[in-house]
């Protein structure tokens, strides 16, 4: 225990330094006085007594130093000294300090900012128990790709699977919230889940109880869990909310609990219901071919690897396809580890940006290392002197490293501030829902990362120059009496290598940015198939309880259309389902008249839109052939439809589609009832329903009056400001039904913009980082060339004396620049060709090795290099030979 | 002990002498300890009296002595050092090990003289 006591005493000693020194002074005074007295007693004169006493006692300062060494924590105190000294040194060269700190701050700040996304989206643990065992499953069909799961299929999956210990069904729903306690009618989202969903994920309700097994059956009591957000906003976080009622779509639900605040899933929800509620009086629950907005989550049984689970599920799906061909033919299953389901395509984007900021930091460190090399070279004499006087080399290196660390720390602190602002700006530019509830911020892990970066950076740019400047052969330099700064070829080579490395890194970044620019440009020039400008869109969902009959629904829609069309400034208005870029889709099988009956899973499977009159006109869609719907296409008229170009070309390639017929659903030869044929009356252009980057699909449009729908989007094209228009539309709808909520209000322009927001944001950031890299690299080149010119001033003077023209000097210097630049560019191009391949999933219609982009970027860097050394080159050309020759 | 440096040997001896002094003479201030050690070792151990002070700090940090401000005979304010219980124990331990060492070396040297 003695060492502990000693440690504590030493620690205390470090802290109470001044007082102790005073006390020691007093003690030594007393000792001196006593010694003097003793000497006087022995017969010496007072002055002699005092002198002898002082000699006997010894040098005061030496005693104090010796005591100090034994007292506090010498390491800590010398560290304190070093930091003090370092700060003083840095304050003496404010330019150097400012440039270095700023450079580091930009590099470290960018890294911290992007890392918070790396952590928040890719690394942060999901709030589930044993998340690595959780899997998200969905069905697939070759005609579309990934689709939802039908409930009967899910039940069979669950029953037949042994690799999953638990499975749960999650069905998205929408509700109108109205009634007592709700000031304005609004629309909310909910998930209807298997009762074991929360327990399977390891989530427990914050208040109240979880669902029970029997709540899976249809007819179960209407209960629900509130989301934490809804509980706060509508119930004031009332702890007695359990047992209260809430009215959704005109039905009363009993609140049985509240979800925890950190609850997170792929959908954002306001309420959670047991699946039994959704299944009640719902024919969809028993329809195997009905797949709408649902997903399945499962927990792998202990010890079962994902590969085995996947193989088993594929087998089960194949079995179901054989057993129920009409519904399941060619339908497969896809399994995703839950992390992949959350991250999706974001992974590539985030990692590309992370690689970019790492490059920027490397360039920044190279620049700072260069600055340190120059600075170290200038202080060579000072170090050699100190070594000659007995200072240990380690001590000097430690002191220089302290300087590096102080600079890195300052850069890190400023960088953190930049990162804080940066993260806020970036998250502001990301459309809601893209990050699936990931929380991004400067939390503990991110700060730890920043600390690590600071330490690494300090070592990277500090170690080399520190060791180099205190090398033994440096002392030889001193003896020679050469110019203060020359430390030989090795250092110059190092500088050259750094410059070339910077150029290579900058080129890779520029190549990436260039490719993204071209890709985004191509993407934004894609024809969406409609005109989004000045079109406002919003959604309305008519609750079945209040609008149970078709005539009531149609009546509502007609009145709303009439009211909106009458508003001043409105050019046209229409209703439609699954409007482009609304991220809602509805697809169904159709049978073309006269086609050979395909396998059940290969029927034409177009996207379906139910529309009112004027839909094409409002959206500015081009009518290629025939006509659009009129008021004459009503419930008593013959069934009609529009198709898009893609469908027309696929099934009536060399014929006129107008007049052709098809029927909804799969034709059943065994059925006695005659098919209800629908006649094609018009062909419209394709729309980019699934986003600008995705190909168009076959589409069919049918009239609202012939296919009544209670959930539709209102589209309004007008000349007036959208917020004014919104309130006017609200009034118009309220005039028809004051309790009808309107939601998802957005301009089509915004929807188009959001569609490209990911590549656009990636490009903006990549462009920013590339620009930063280029600027830093340019500064680096400037530094190296400038230094080189200064060093070779003497040589240039000699050359000029021997008859060289300024032009030859220019060629000399530019030759050196050119060597750096071309080497850097060559290495950069090779590296870029290898690396850009990794971002090809982000590129739209551009190859990852697009020669035009690479060429443009290379030329840009050459120009930058030339521009960067403009000043040093001019200086070189202006060298006065007489001055230069004398310049030692 | 064979591997200890000269400085460490001197340090160890000095420590022992300080402890013994305080044990024999009771609480004493720095000057008093230094004077006693000089008497006993005949100036061999203290290059100058000031080198006593680091030793006192060391001994205090190890918990073998403690210090207190007091008043000396001629009314001067001085810091007085005294032996702690642990210090007393340490003194006994050190004394024993010195005796053991001395007897071994004596025997060794005596044995070397025998033919």
Largest sheet of chain A: 11 strands, mixed
Provide the low-confidence segments of chain A as ranges. 482-486
Which architecture of chain B would the CATH scheme give at its second level? Orthogonal Bundle
Helix content of chain A: 40-55%
Shape label of chain B: elongated
Structural class of chain A: alpha+beta
Parts with pLDDT < 50 across at least 5 consecutive residues of chain B: none
Q: How large, in whole angstroms, is the Cα Rg of chain A?
A: 38 Å
Q: Which percent band covers the strand fraction of chain B?
A: 5-15%
Number of structural domains of chain B:
1
How far apart are the first and last residues' alpha carbons of chain A, in Å? 64 Å
Q: Mean pLDDT score of chain B, rounded?
A: 81
Question: Could you name the CATH class of chain B?
Answer: Mainly Alpha
CATH topology of chain B: Arc Repressor Mutant, subunit A
As a percent range, the share of strand residues of chain A is 5-15%
Beta strand count of chain B: 3
- DSSP E strands of chain A, number: 22
Q: In terms of quaternary structure, what is this?
A: heterodimer
Describe the structure.
The complex is a heterodimer of chains A (888) and B (115). Chain A has 888 residues and is of the alpha+beta class. Chain A folds into four domains: 2-72, no CATH class; 143-329, no CATH class; 346-524 and 757-886, no CATH class; 547-738, no CATH class. Helix content of chain A is 53%, strand content 15%. In chain A, strands 1, 2, 3, 4, 5, 6, 7, 8, 9, 10 and 11 form an eleven-stranded mixed beta sheet that branches. In chain A, helix 19 runs antiparallel to helix 25, helix 19 (488-524) crosses helix 28 and helix 20 packs across helix 23 (722-736). In chain B, 62% of the residues lie in helices and 14% in strands. The longest helix of chain B has 29 residues, at 85-113. Chain B has one domain: Winged helix-like DNA-binding domain superfamily/Winged helix DNA-binding domain (Arc Repressor Mutant, subunit A, Orthogonal Bundle). Chain B has 115 residues and is an alpha+beta fold. Chain B contains four helices and three strands. The two termini of chain B are 28 Å apart. The interface between A and B is medium-sized, with 30 and 24 residues.
């Amino acid at each position: 225990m003695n060492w502990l006591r000693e440690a504590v005493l030493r620690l205390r000693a470090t802290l109470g330094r001044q007082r102790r020194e005073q006390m020691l002074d007093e003690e030594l005074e007393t000792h001196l006085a006593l010694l003097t007295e003793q000497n006087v007693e022995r017969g010496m004169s007072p002055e002699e007594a005092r002198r002898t006493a002082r000699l006997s006692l010894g040098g005061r300062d030496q005693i104090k130093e010796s005591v100090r060494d034994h007292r506090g924590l010498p390491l800590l105190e010398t560290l304190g000294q070093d930091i003090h000294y370092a700060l003083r040194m840095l304050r003496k060269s404010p330019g150097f300090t400012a440039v270095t700190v700023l450079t580091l701050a930009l590099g470290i700040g960018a890294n911290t900012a992007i890392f918070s996304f790396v952590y928040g989206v890719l690394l942060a643990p999901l709030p589930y128990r044993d998340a690595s065992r959780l899997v998200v499953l969905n069905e697939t069909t070759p005609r579309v790709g990934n689709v939802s799961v039908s409930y009967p299929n899910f039940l069979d999956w669950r029953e037949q699977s042994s690799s999953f210990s638990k499975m749960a069904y999650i069905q998205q729903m929408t509700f109108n919230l109205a009634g007592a306690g709700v000031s304005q009618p609004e629309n909310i989202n909910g998930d209807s889940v298997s009762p074991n969903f929360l327990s399977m994920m390891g989530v427990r309700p914050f208040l109240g109880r979880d669902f029970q097994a029997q709540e899976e059956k249809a007819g179960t009591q209407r209960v629900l869990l509130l989301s934490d957000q809804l509980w706060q906003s509508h119930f004031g976080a009332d702890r007695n909310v359990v047992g209260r009622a809430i009215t959704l779509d005109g039905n009363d639900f009993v609140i049985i609990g509240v979800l925890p605040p950190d609850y997170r899933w792929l959908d954002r929800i306001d309420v959670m219901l047991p699946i039994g509620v959704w299944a009640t009086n719902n024919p969809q629950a028993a329809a195997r071919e009905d797949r709408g907005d649902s997903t399945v989550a499962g927990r792998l049984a202990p010890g079962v690897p994902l590969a085995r689970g996947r193989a088993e599920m594929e087998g089960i799906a194949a079995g179901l396809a054989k057993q129920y061909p009409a519904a399941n033919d060619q339908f497969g299953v896809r399994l995703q580890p839950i992390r992949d389901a959350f991250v999706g395509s974001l992974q590539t984007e985030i990692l590309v940006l992370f690689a970019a900021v790492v490059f920027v930091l490397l360039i920044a460190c190279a620049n700072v290392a260069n600055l340190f090399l120059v600075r170290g070279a200038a202080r060579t004499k000072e170090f050699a002197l100190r070594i000659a006087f007995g200072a240990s080399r380690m001590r000097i290196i430690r002191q220089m490293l302290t300087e590096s660390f102080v600079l890195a720390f300052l850069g890190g602190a400023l960088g953190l501030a930049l990162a804080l602002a940066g993260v806020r700006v970036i998250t502001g530019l990301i459309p809601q829902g893209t990050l699936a509830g990931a929380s991004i911020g400067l939390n503990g892990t991110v700060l730890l990362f920043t600390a690590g970066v600071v330490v690494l950076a300090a070592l990277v740019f500090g170690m080399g120059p520190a060791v180099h400047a205190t090398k033994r052969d440096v002392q030889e330099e001193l003896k020679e009496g050469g110019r203060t700064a020359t430390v030989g070829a090795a250092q110059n080579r190092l500088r050259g290598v750094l410059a070339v490395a910077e150029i290579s890194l900058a080129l890779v970044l520029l190549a990436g940015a260039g490719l993204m620019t071209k890709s985004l440009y191509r993407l934004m020039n894609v024809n969406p198939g409609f005109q989004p400008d000045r079109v406002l869109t919003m959604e309305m969902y008519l609750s079945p309880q209040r609008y149970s009959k078709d005539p009531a629904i149609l009546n509502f829609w007609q009145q709303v259309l009439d009211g909106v069309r009458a508003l001043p400034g409105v050019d046209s208005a229409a209703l439609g389902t699954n409007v482009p870029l609304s991220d809602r889709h509805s697809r169904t099988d159709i049978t073309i008249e006269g086609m050979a009956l395909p396998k059940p899973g290969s029927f034409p499977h177009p996207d379906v839109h139910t529309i009112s009159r004027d839909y094409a006109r409002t959206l500015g869609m081009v009518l290629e052939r025939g006509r659009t719907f009129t008021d004459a296409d009503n419930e008593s008229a013959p069934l009609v439809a529009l198709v898009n170009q893609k469908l027309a070309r696929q099934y009536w390639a060399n014929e006129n589609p107008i007049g052709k017929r098809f029927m909804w659903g799969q034709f059943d030869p065994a059925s006695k009832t005659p098919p209800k044929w629908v006649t094609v009356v018009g062909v419209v252009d394709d729309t980019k329903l699934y986003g600008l980057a995705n190909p168009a699909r076959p589409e069919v449009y049918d009239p609202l009056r012939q296919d009544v729908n209670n959930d539709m989007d209102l589209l309004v094209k007008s000349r007036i400001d959208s917020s004014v228009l919104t309130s006017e539309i609200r009034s118009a709808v309220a005039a028809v039904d004051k309790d009808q909520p309107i939601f998802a209000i957005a301009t089509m322009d915004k929807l188009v913009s959001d569609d490209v927001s990911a590549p656009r944001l990636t490009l903006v950031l990549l462009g920013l980082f590339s620009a930063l890299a280029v600027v830093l690299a340019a500064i680096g080149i400037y530094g190296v060339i400038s230094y080189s010119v200064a060093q070779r001033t003497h040589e240039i003077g000699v050359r000029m004396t021997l008859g060289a023209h300024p032009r030859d000097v220019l060629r000399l210097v530019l030759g050196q620049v050119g060597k750096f630049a071309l080497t850097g560019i060559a290495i950069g191009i090779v590296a870029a060709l290898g690396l850009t391949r990794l971002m090809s999933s982000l590129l739209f219609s551009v190859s990852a090795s697009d020669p035009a982009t690479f060429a443009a970027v290379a030329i840009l860097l050459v120009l930058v290099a030339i521009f960067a050394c403009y000043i040093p080159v001019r200086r070189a050309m202006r060298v006065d030979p007489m001055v230069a020759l004398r310049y030692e | 002990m064979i591997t200890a440096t000269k400085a460490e040997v001197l340090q160890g001896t000095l420590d022992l002498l300080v402890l013994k002094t305080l044990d024999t003479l009771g609480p004493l201030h720095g000057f008093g300890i230094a004077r006693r050690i000089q008497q006993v070792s005949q100036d061999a151990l203290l290059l100058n009296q000031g080198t006593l002070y680091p030793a006192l700090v060391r001994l205090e940090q190890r918990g073998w002595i403690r210090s207190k401000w007091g008043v000396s005979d001629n009314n001067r304010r001085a810091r007085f050092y005294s032996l702690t219980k642990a210090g007393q124990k340490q003194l006994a331990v050190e004394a024993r090990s010195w005796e053991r060492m001395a007897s071994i070396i004596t025997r060794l040297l005596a044995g070397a003289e025998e033919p």
